[in-house]
Write a structure and sequence with these properties.
Blueprint lengths: L1 E14 L4 E8 L5 E6 L2 H7 L7 E12 L6 E12 L1
Antiparallel strand pairs: 1-2, 1-4, 2-3, 4-5
Length: about 80
C-alpha cells in the first residue's frame, strides 16, 4: 500500500446506472494528479465532508486488469484509507 498526499481537485460520480463509482481527483504536485476510486462505503461517507481544495492523505492500492473482451489493460488506484490533513 502507498500513501499519497495532495489537494482535492474534484469529487464526482461516474459510470452507469447499475454501476456507479466515486472518483476523487487529487493534485499531488503542480504537474501530477491521480484519479482515485473510492469503493468503500465508509470512505464514501468521509467524502461527503470534504470539498475542493482540502488537503488529504490517502492510502491506496493498485489493481491492474486485462479486459476479457478485447485485451485492453487498465490500472485502477483504489482508496483504502482517507484522512483530512
Amino acid at each position: 500500500m502507498n500513501i499519497l498526499h495532495g489537494k482535492i481537485q474534484s469529487i464526482h460520480t461516474e459510470g452507469t446506472a447499475e454501476f456507479k463509482k466515486k472518483i476523487l481527483t487529487l493534485s499531488v504536485s503542480s504537474e501530477e494528479r491521480c484519479f482515485i476510486e473510492v469503493r468503500n462505503e465508509m470512505l464514501r461517507e468521509i467524502l461527503k465532508n470534504l470539498k475542493k481544495g482540502d488537503k488529504v492523505q490517502v492510502a491506496v492500492s493498485y489493481e491492474g486488469k486485462i479486459s476479457k473482451s478485447n485485451g485492453n489493460r487498465f490500472n485502477n488506484i483504489i482508496a483504502k484509507t482517507l484522512d483530512k490533513l
